[in-house]
Amino acid sequence: MKNRLGLALLALGLACGGLMASAAESGQTGGKSKPSTADHTKFKELAGPFKSGEEVTKACLSCHTEASKQLMATRHWTWEYTNPDTGQKLGKKTMLNGFCIGDKSNEAFCNSCHIGYGWKDASFDFKDENKVDCLVCHNSGDYVKPAGLAGNVPTVKTEWPMGSGKFFGPIDLAKVSQHVGKTRTDNCGTCHYNGGGGDGVKHGDLDSSLNSADKNLDVHMASKDKGGQGFSCSTCHQSDGHVISGSRIQMTASDPHGPNVRGDKDARGTSTCQSCHGNKPHKQPALNMEVLNSHTDKLACQTCHVPEFARGGVATKMKWDWSQAGKKDANGKPYVVKDDHGHNIYDSKKGTFELGNNVVPDYVWFNGKVTYTLQTDTIDPSGVVKINTFHGDSKDPKARIWPVKRFQGKQPYDTEYKKLLVPHTATPDDTAFWYNFDWPKALKAGAEATGEPYSGKYGFIETEMLWPITHMVAPKDKAVPCIECHKVDGRLAGLDGIYVPGRDSNKWIDWIGWLAVLGTIVGTMLHAGFRIFIKPARTQEKHHV
Prior knowledge:
Elements: H1 4-15, H2 53-61, H3 67-72, H4 75-78, E1 81-82, E2 89-90, H5 107-110, H6 135-138, E3 158-159, E4 167-168, H7 173-177, H8 185-192, H9 233-236, E5 239-240, E6 243-244, H10 274-277, H11 289-293, H12 301-305, E7 316-321, E8 336-338, E9 344-347, E10 351-356, E11 362-366, E12 370-372, E13 385-386, E14 388-390, E15 400-414, E16 419-420, H13 433-436, H14 439-450, E17 458-468, H15 507-544
Parallel strand pairs: 7-15, 13-17
Antiparallel strand pairs: 1-2, 3-4, 5-6, 7-10, 8-9, 9-10, 11-15, 12-14, 15-16, 15-17
Helix pairs in contact: 1-15
């Protein structure tokens, strides 16, 4: 009689008026932006013309005197961070991934997503305040930083890449600077949507569909006209002196502090669900809200409320095999193969891909601690290399069951020194793989840029990387149904360390469960009968008053 308890609990849930998790009635809501007190079109400092982005920044700093200093103290500028919990030195300067792998030797291409101008190699001056790019976060349109120009803006018509027939610019920097404003969702998305070389490639829950999300895609990001809350990224990821709350490098897996008091600021900002909704978010249905709230000591909010990722029509990459890169067609030319939806599934420059839409997450225990395999670390080539590891288990009071995107890669490594390698790929020279398809040259140049020794012997190894799923929050009536987890082959089938009714079976627990169900039903019936019995008496008393 396996799984009786789970089925009984599900039946009880139906009897009590519904199984779906109910969102909190109150929470932070988005509102219309307050009118600015400054009309930037009237500032003579912004009249231009500007020959470079640095000239615009110099003009901005004439009023916003501390802006560059503040920003230069952040990870957005330094691209490095020492995790106080693990001691690892992280950030894009040192971290690896299974997508484009690493930025070393590829700075001029990758660093179009840096909030600065001109970072093409190690000579970049991180102390030059005029190198800060104010416009990339505060522009209101008509601003572009093409990959390959080291974060510089084309102020004259520019063909890039050379010989491609694709032109950028000229960008009218005076016009852009005169129409700046608070950061918008698409400002953040310019970089955060496009990590890994394209829209939605990396995260799975961040892509351009959020710019025009409806309520079914994301209840927070959807505009109020579409039934959502009208949030921008900065509604949750609040900033203080340009320091923005929330990070996948050092996460808060469980937040015991409850909702923020209005006006109160702490390091977490409002980037956790609990900072608005608290740890008992479910207010109804009355008879099972306590059961739902009791799940919060084991489940992250996202586990129930993000049923799938990549739901907005933008596919995310789930696999990337670099070992297949370098093939050429019958004419000796690199080529691309697309699937029926127009997605690249093979590219001579990059290898083979597998993509996904409406992907059901994997689930792991996670306490917020993440460690990474870095360029300096020795790997074990006998198995799959974990580029990052989410720590935590069922016995850890800080751990919760979290949804993740499990990305699988196959990338180059040094077979003698047993270290992952960063290939030189993107900038047009004789050693870049995208221009010569020569792995030995590309790997040697990449190793020289990282400063790590290279034996000259290489192979390809399978890797895995986890990405936390925390955006694309569905409406409460579209949360994960209870039966999706409370069954034998459900979403939590491979998760250990926890007894899941409906998935697991234990004779004594089943009997206790049946007694609890029976007691609840009897108690409910007695309570209802008692109310019916005393109602006439109360009516008579009222008439006698």
